[in-house]
Write a structure and sequence with these properties.
Length: about 900
C-alpha cells in the first residue's frame, strides 16, 4: 500500500491555498452571519499551529529501497517569521509500553519550502526520510521541535513540539492518523455566534479515531500521562470538545458557570487561546496537532452568503446521478470575494467564480457539481467558505452533509439528565439536531471507580429516555447516551456522573453539571473515570444483547492457550466440566449452559490427556460445528481468534434461537485478500450472553495444522511469484517482506536471511553455480543433478517445501526438527523440469505461525556431458553421410569410365 509523502492538492482549492488543503485539519462553521455594524465591531478567530505526518514504507527490493519512514511537518507561522522544523528525533517504546530509548536514524532532508501567498500567515513545509533504525519493528515516537510560534503546550520533555506514535512490523506499510481538511479564514464575532471546528482526522484506510486534549505533562516517564478537558493553561470560554467526534464548539450554550460569550471579545486588544489535540487510531497509533485561536479587533465586515441552493444541511446524491450546489455571496465593504473548500473528491467538480452588479451590491457566485459514480458508498462533510481580500480577511462558512450512497452518521444527543435510585437510573435527553436519522439510542453506565459497563438499548426515536437496572447502590456511575444508525458510526453525548442511593427508595438527580445530592452523602469521594486504552476491549456485564467489536481482553491482556477450556460468566471465572466422548467431539457444561464443538474425522481431532490438557486440532481451511443451549434468546454467539490482539479474527457469528439454543459452523479460513490464519496453538474464544443477561466468555485451545503442500502466492499481487533469473522476493503470510540474499560463489551457495529465519540453497553440480546479481543471487541448476536446501528459525514439527515453477512442481518436503531447523536434498528431474528460466520457492512455517517463502529466479540447463555426447553423435552421423556420398561419387566415376571405353 502506498502512502504519499503529502496528499495531492484539492482541485477545489484556490491558488494561494494549494499547499494546505487535504494535508491538515480544520474548520466547520455551521452559521451564516449578517454584516456587523459600527456599534458591534467584528473581531476575528483564525487557526494556526501545525502537524507532523509519519508514514512507514517496507523495503521494496524491486524498486531498490530499504525500509524507511517519511516525516512531513507543516507549520503555520506569523508573517515573515523565521521559524522552521529541524531534524525529527526518534525514540523506541520499551516492552512496558511507557519508557523509551533514543534511536539514531540516518536522516536526509527531502524538501523544505515556505508558502507566503496567504495574507494572514506563512506555511512552512519540511519533509525528511529516515532509515536504518527500524529493523525488527516495534512502536516508535517521532517528535519535531520548533521555536516558531505554536500553541505553547509542552510535551513530555518540556519542549514545545509535535509528536506522533507509529507501530512498525517491518513488513507492512503503515501511517499515523492524518488530519484531512484544510485551513479556513477568519470569522466574525457576534453575541449569537456559534463557532464549530472539527479535527476531521482519519486513521489508516480511512478508519475511525478517537481524540484527547493534551495538557501539560509532568516530569515522569517520556510518555507520561495526559488529561482531558484542558486547553493549555487557559480554558476557552463557552467551549466544548467532543473526544468521540473531534468537534470543538464555541457558543453561548456551552458557557460554564461564570462564563459569557462576551468573554471572547478582546475589546481593543488581542486574546489568544491554544490547545493541543491527539488523534488515536484503533491500535494506539496517534498524531498531535496544535491549534491557536487568536481573537483581535478589526473594522472589517465579514461577507455573507446571500443565496444557497439547496439550503445547507443534509443532501442525498444517488450514485450514477448528478446534483448541483450553487452559492452566492456579497460583502458590505465592497471587498473582492473568493471561495475555498475543505474537501477533495474526484466526483466533486467546480465552476469559475462569476459576478454580477457592482460595489457593495456585487454578487459572487459559484457552482459545484456532484456526480458520484455507481457503487459509491460514503458520507462526507463538504464545507464551503467565502472570504474577502481585506488586510485582515474575514470569512463565512456553510456545510453540506452529503450522503453518496451511504448513510450519514448520527449527530450528538443532548447531555442527559439523570434520576438515580438504589439500583437503577433513568436518563432523559434531547435528540441530535444534526446528522443522519437515528435508528436507536443506547445508554452506557460505567462505574467511575472502575468496573464493568452496563448497557441498555433504548426505544427507537422519537423516544428520548432510557432506563438502566441492575446497578449497585452507593456506586458513582458515569453515563453517556449513544446515537446509532446503519452508518456504522455512533455519536456519544457528554458524560454525566451520579451516585446511586444507599437503599431502595432513595433517589437523586443530576443535570449536565454532574452534581447530585447522593454524591454529597457518599462515604468516600468518587474516583475519576480512567482514560480509555484504544487497544483494550474490556469484559462487559450487560443485560441487553450487544456484539463485541473484537475479542474480550481482560485488563487488556491477550489470552494464552489454556490447559483446558475455561468459562467466565459476568466477569467471574465459573466452575464447569468438560468431556471428550470421541476424537471428534468436545462438550463443556457450566451451570445451565452447555456447549459442544465437533470436527469431521478428515479435518481434525479432539484430544484430552490424562493430566487434563485438552485441545482441538483442525486443518487450515477446515470448519468446526459449534452448538449450545442455555443462552439468551436473540443474542449472538461470536467466535474469535484473539491471536496477538491487533490482528484478531472473528470467525463467525451464530444467532441464538428463541429457546436459547444455537447451531453454527466456524471456518478456520480467510479470504484470498485477507491475512491468513497462523499455524500452531491459538485461543478459540466464544462470546455471548446467558439467559440472565450476563456476558459469557469461553476459551479453549485450538491447534491449527499446516495445510497440504501448495505454492505460496504473493497475496498483495494475487499471483504466484514469477522471477526473472537473478530476481528475488520473499513473503510472510503472503505479504512481501524485506530479506537479505548473500551469494557465496566459491561454495555455490545462496543464503536468504529474513526477520528471525534463514534459508539456503547449495548447488552440488559441478556445472551449476551461484553468481552475484542485482536481485541478490543468480542460481544455475542442472537437470538430473541435486541441490541441498537448509533453514533455521521455523516452527518445530511443521513442514518445509521446495517448489519449482512456471508449472508448479514439488521438488521435495522435509520436517522441521525440534530446534526449528531443516536440511534436505532435492533433485531436478529432467522428466518434469524443462530447460530454461524458472522460479525456485523455498517455504516453511515461521515461529509466528505464518509461512515464510523465498522466491528466486533461476536458470535450469542440461549437464555438459549430455551436450558433448549429442555433439559427438551428430558429428559421427555427419561423417557417415560424407562417406556415403564419396562412395556414390566413386561408383558414378567408374560407371562413366566404362561407358567411354565401350564407345
Amino acid at each position: 500500500m502506498f502512502f504519499p509523502h503529502l496528499a495531492r492538492p484539492s482541485r477545489l482549492t484556490i491558488d494561494r491555498f494549494v499547499a494546505l488543503v487535504s494535508v491538515s485539519s480544520l474548520l466547520a462553521l455551521m452559521v451564516s452571519l449578517s454584516p456587523v455594524t459600527t456599534s458591534e465591531r467584528a473581531f476575528a478567530s483564525h487557526l494556526r499551529g501545525g502537524i507532523v505526518t509519519v508514514e512507514y514504507h517496507a523495503a521494496d527490493p524491486d524498486h531498490g529501497h530499504a525500509e524507511e519512514v517519511h516525516v512531513t511537518s507543516q507549520l503555520l507561522l506569523a508573517k515573515s517569521s523565521s521559524g522552521s522544523f529541524g531534524t525529527p528525533s526518534v525514540r523506541k517504546v520499551s516492552g512496558d509500553g511507557l519508557s523509551t530509548t533514543a534511536v539514531s536514524c540516518t536522516s536526509s532532508l527531502d524538501s523544505s519550502n515556505k508558502d507566503t501567498s496567504n495574507p494572514l500567515f506563512d506555511i512552512q513545509t519540511t519533509s525528511y526520510t529516515l532509515t536504518g533504525c527500524f529493523t525488527g519493528g516495534g512502536d516508535f515516537i517521532f517528535t519535531q521541535t520548533s521555536g516558531a510560534r505554536i500553541s505553547g503546550i509542552a510535551n513530555a520533555d518540556g519542549t514545545v513540539q509535535y509528536e506522533a506514535r507509529l507501530s512498525i512490523d517491518s513488513s507492512n506499510d503503515s501511517a499515523v492518523p492524518t488530519y484531512s481538511s484544510g485551513y479556513m479564514y477568519n470569522i466574525a464575532y457576534s453575541t449569537g455566534m456559534s463557532y464549530s471546528t472539527n479535527m476531521n482526522a482519519l486513521g489508516q484506510g480511512n478508519s475511525a479515531v478517537t481524540y484527547e486534549l493534551v495538557t501539560e505533562r509532568g516530569s515522569g516517564s517520556y510518555l507520561g500521562t495526559t488529561g482531558l478537558g484542558g486547553y493549555g493553561a487557559t480554558r476557552i470560554p463557552c467551549s466544548d470538545f467532543n473526544t468521540s467526534t473531534g468537534q470543538l464548539q464555541v457558543a453561548a450554550s456551552h458557557c460554564a458557570a461564570g462564563e459569557a460569550i462576551t468573554d471572547l471579545n478582546p475589546g481593543s486588544g488581542t486574546k489568544v487561546y491554544a490547545f493541543k489535540v491527539k488523534a488515536i487510531d484503533g491500535i494506539g497509533q496517534y498524531s498531535t496537532r496544535d491549534v491557536l485561536l487568536s481573537f483581535q479587533t478589526t473594522s472589517n465586515n465579514a461577507p455573507v452568503f446571500s443565496a444557497t441552493s439547496p439550503s445547507p444541511g443534509s443532501l442525498s446524491v444517488v450514485p450514477g446521478t448528478t446534483e448541483t450546489i450553487t452559492v452566492s455571496a456579497t460583502d458590505v465593504d465592497a471587498d473582492v470575494l473568493d471561495f475555498t473548500e475543505n474537501l477533495s473528491r474526484a466526483w466533486i467538480t467546480e465552476s469559475s467564480v462569476t459576478t454580477s452588479g457592482s460595489g457593495a451590491s456585487t454578487v459572487y457566485s459559484k457552482t459545484y457539481t456532484l456526480s458520484p459514480p455507481g457503487g459509491t458508498n460514503e458520507t462526507v462533510q463538504f464545507e464551503i467558505s467565502v472570504f474577502d481580500d481585506d488586510v485582515f480577511s474575514l470569512s463565512a462558512s456553510i456545510q453540506y452533509d452529503i450522503e453518496a450512497g451511504g448513510v450519514l452518521p448520527p449527530g450528538t444527543p443532548g447531555t442527559p439528565t439523570l434520576t438515580a435510585g438504589a439500583a437503577s437510573l433513568a436518563a432523559s435527553f434531547t435528540a441530535p439536531s444534526t446528522g443522519g436519522t437515528v435508528a436507536s439510542y443506547r445508554a452506557d453506565a460505567t462505574p467511575t471507580g472502575g468496573g464493568s459497563t452496563v448497557q441498555v438499548t433504548c426505544s427507537a426515536p422519537p423516544a428520548t429516555s432510557c432506563s438502566l437496572s441492575g446497578l449497585s447502590p452507593l456506586v458513582q456511575y458515569s453515563v453517556v447516551i449513544v446515537a446509532i444508525n446503519a452508518s456504522g458510526s455512533a455519536s456519544s453525548s457528554a458524560a454525566v456522573q451520579t451516585t446511586l442511593a444507599a437503599s431502595t427508595g432513595g433517589s437523586g438527580s443530576s443535570s449536565g453539571n454532574g452534581s447530585s445530592r447522593d454524591e454529597e452523602e457518599a462515604e468516600t469521594p468518587p474516583r475519576p473515570v480512567p482514560a480509555a486504552t484504544p487497544r483494550v476491549t474490556t469484559p462487559l456485564e450487560t443485560k441487553t444483547p450487544v456484539t463485541q467489536s473484537g475479542p474480550v481482553l481482560t485488563r487488556g491482556v491477550v489470552p494464552v492457550p489454556p490447559k483446558a477450556p475455561t468459562v467466565v460468566l459476568g466477569g467471574r471465572p465459573t466452575l464447569m466440566t468438560t468431556s471428550v466422548p470421541s476424537t471428534t467431539q468436545l462438550d463443556v457444561k457450566a451451570g445451565r449452559l452447555s456447549l459442544g464443538v465437533k470436527v469431521l474425522e478428515d479435518q481434525g481431532t479432539i484430544s484430552e490427556a490424562p493430566d487434563g490438557t485438552t485441545q482441538i486440532a483442525v486443518k487450515k481451511g477446515a470448519s468446526a460445528t459449534i452448538t449450545g443451549t442455555g443462552f439468551k434468546p436473540a443474542a449472538t454467539v461470536q467466535v474469535f481468534l484473539p491471536l496477538d490482539g491487533d490482528n484478531a479474527k472473528e470467525l463467525t457469528r451464530i444467532p441464538v434461537a428463541a429457546d436459547g439454543s444455537f447451531d453454527g459452523s466456524a471456518p478456520f479460513a480467510t479470504k484470498a485478500n485477507e491475512a491468513p490464519l497462523p499455524v500452531g496453538k491459538q485461543v478459540l474464544q466464544l462470546v455471548s450472553m446467558d439467559n440472565d443477561g450476563n456476558q459469557v466468555v469461553v476459551e479453549m485451545t485450538v491447534n491449527i495444522a499446516q495445510g497440504s503442500p501448495a505454492p505460496e502466492a504473493n497475496r498483495i499481487e494475487g499471483v504466484i511469484p514469477a522471477m526473472q533469473p537473478g530476481q528475488s522476493i520473499a513473503t510472510s503470510g503472503g505479504e512481501p517482506v524485506p530479506v537479505t540474499i548473500t551469494p557465496v560463489s566459491d561454495q555455490k551457495l545462496a543464503v536468504v536471511e529474513g526477520d528471525g529465519w534463514t534459508m539456503a540453497v547449495n548447488v552440488t553440480s559441478d556445472q551449476g553455480g551461484v553468481e552475484p546479481a542485482e536481485g541478490g543471487a543468480l542460481l544455475k541448476l542442472v537437470r538430473n543433478e541435486s541441490a541441498l536446501v537448509s533453514g533455521s528459525g521455523f516452527m518445530p514439527g511443521t513442514r518445509a517445501d521446495v517448489w519449482l515453477f512456471s508449472d508448479p512442481t514439488l521438488l521435495g518436503t522435509v520436517t522441521i526438527d525440534e530446534n526449528g531447523e531443516f536440511t534436505g536434498e532435492v533433485n531436478i528431474d529432467p522428466n518434469m523440469i524443462p530447460v530454461g528460466q524458472h522460479t525456485l520457492q523455498l517455504q516453511g512455517v515461521g515461529e509466528d505461525g505464518y509461512v515464510k517463502a523465498a522466491n528466486m529466479g533461476v536458470l535450469v540447463d542440461d549437464p555438459a556431458e549430455a551436450v558433448t555426447d549429442t555433439a559427438t553423435a551428430s558429428l559421427t552421423f555427419l561423417w557417415w553421410i560424407v562417406a556415403a556420398v564419396l562412395v556414390v561419387l566413386v561408383l558414378v566415376a567408374i560407371l562413366v569410365s566404362r561407358r567411354r571405353r565401350q564407345a
